[in-house]
Amino acid sequence: MGKKGGSASGKPKEKSGPAAAASVKIRHILCEKHSKAMEALERVKKGENFAEVARNYSEDKARLGGELGWLTKGAVVGPFQDAAFSLDVGEYSKDLVKTEFGYHILLVEGRK
Prior knowledge:
The protein has 112 residues and is an alpha+beta fold. The chain is 24% helix and 25% strand.
């Protein structure tokens, strides 16, 4: 009778939760006005392509699809960082993230 693999593989378990990441790959949508940001968030919630919504709604370089690349802790303002590092890969912020720059919708595309 052979043993099944299970957790005795000798490999350490990788932490895959948000707290384990040293950096995250982010897309975002930034709007100065709350109403415009809410409209963009509703489109994302309905399943529209995040990059396309960013191109149509974002008011900064995110108009190029929202890609900000890899960010490390300390590289962005507090509320943005807190939200970015609390999301799982493929997850977007269900609520707007308010910073001094406006209202953000975040999408985490990777973590390492």
